[in-house]
Amino acid sequence: MSKIRFRQKQLLLSASIGGAIILFVCVIAGYFIIDYIQGRYVERTLQIEQQLQDAQKKLNEDKMKVIVLNDNHKAGDLITEDDVSSLVVPVSTVPQNTVEQAEVVGKRIKIDLQKNSIITSPMLFEDGITPKDLRNQEFSLVQLPLKLRKDEFVDVRIRFATGQDYIVLSKKKVEDLNNGTIWYKMNEKEILTMSSAIVDAYINDASIYALSYVDPYMQDGAIINYPSNPKVLDLIESNPNIVGLATTALERQVRAKLEQDLQSMSDEDRQKYISGRNTTEMNSREYITETEGQGNTPTSQQDNSLMNENSTDMNQQNNTGNAPNATSDSGGMFKDSNTREPAQ
User: Fold this and answer.
1) Is residue 110 a contact partner of residue 124, using CB atoms and an 8 Å limit?
2) Second label for 131, Cα 20 to 30 Å away, from 3, 65, 109, 323?
3) Which residue, among 97, 94, 99, has the nearest Cα to 58 in the 3D structure?
4) Do 212 and 169 touch, CB atoms closer than 8 A?
5) What strands, in cross-sheet order, belong to the sheet with 207-212?
C-alpha cells in the first residue's frame, strides 16, 4: 500500500514539473509574439503618421491652375474653348512648360491625348495666318499611295528615268481625295513649281508621285530640292497651253495605270468601284443642273472649256506648221497626239 502511494506522489511530482516547464515555454513564446506584434504596430503607426504628415504638407503647398482636356483627342485635332477646363493642383506636380487657356484655344495637338491630360506647350502647334495667295488645287496626275486617306500629309516628288528623284512639294495636307484626284492648298510659289515639274515630267518621261508621312505631327517637313528648269519656266511663260498639254498627258498615263489595276481586280471589287464612280458622276450632274438653272457656269466646266480651246488652238497651229517658238526652244516638239519628236 505504501509503495502505491509513493508511485502516485512521483507521478504527481513529474506532472507538476512537466506542467511548469510547458508553462514557462508558453510564457517565453508569448512574450516574443507580443513583442513582435507590438513592433509591427509601432512601425505601422509610424508609417501612417508619415503619410499624414506628407498629405498635410501637400495641402499646405502653393497651388496653381492648369489646363486639362475634357475628353480624348487625336493628333491634329483643333482645340476649342469647350474642349478644355481648368484644374487646381499643387505646384510640385505641374510641369514648367504649362500654358494658359488663351494659348491653347485655336491650336492643334501633335499627339494623341487622353481625358484630363495636362496640356504643355510642346504638345501644341498652330496653322498660322492664311496667306493671301493660298489656293485650292486639284491633281489627277499624281501617283498616290494605295492606303492614302484624307487629312494625311505627303511629299510630292518627281522621279526621272535617270533615277534622279526630287521633292517638289513638302508636307502637303490631303484636303480631299476622290477616285485618284487629290486636293492641296498651295501658294503661288508652289503652284509655279508644280507647273514646272508637270512640264518637266512630260518632256523627260518622268513620273510624279506622293509619299505619305508616318508621324506628320512630330516629323518636320522635307526640304524641297527640285530645281526648276529655266527652259521649262521660259516655255511656260511663252506658251501657257503647254501646262494643259502636259497635265493631260500625265493624267492619261495615271488613268492607264488605273485601268490596268482595275483589270486585275475581282468582279466584286470592280462592281464596287463602278458603283462608287457612278454615284460621284450622278452627284456632279445634279450639281451642274442646279448651277445652270441659276444661270451660272460651274468653274470646272469653264476650266475644261478653256483647256479645250487652248488645245484646239495648239492643234491648229501645229497643223499649219506655226508651232510656238517656245516649244522648239525646249529641246523637242509636241505633236497633236501629245508625243514628242526629238530636236533636229
Assistant:
1) yes
2) 109
3) 94
4) no
5) 165-173, 153-159, 207-212
DSSP character at residue 323: -
CA distance 261 to 273: 12
From residue 309, alpha-carbon distances to 163, 253, 302 in Å are 36, 22, 10
Query: Nine-digit cell at 218?
Result: 512630330
Cell 492606303 found at: 147
For the record, the C-alpha cell of 340 comes out as 514628242
134 conformational bin, left if phi > 0, alpha if psi -120 to 50, beta if neither: beta
DSSP string, 125-154: E---PPPTT-EEEEESSSB--TT--TT-EE
Over residues 74-108, the pLDDT tens digits come to 888 888 888 888 888 877 777 878 888 778 888 88
Q: How many CB atoms lie within 10 A of CB 94?
A: 16
Q: Which residues pair with 21 in a beta bridge?
A: none
Please check whether residue 157 is in contact with residue 165, taking contact to mean a CB–CB distance below 8 angstroms.
Answer: yes
- Mapping DSSP to helix (H, G, I), strand (E, B) and coil, where does residue 197 land? helix
Q: What averages of pLDDT result for each successive group of 10 residues across the chain (344 residues)?
A: 69 81 86 86 88 77 82 86 85 80 83 86 74 84 91 94 92 91 89 87 90 89 85 70 73 70 67 63 56 45 40 41 37 36 36
Which residue is listed with cell 483627342? 73
**Cα distance between residue 53 and residue 36, in whole Å:** 26
Q: How far is CA 122 from the centre of its chain?
A: 17
The C-alpha cell at 90 is: 499643387
> Cell 496653322 belongs to which residue?
127
Query: For 278, which DSSP code?
Result: H
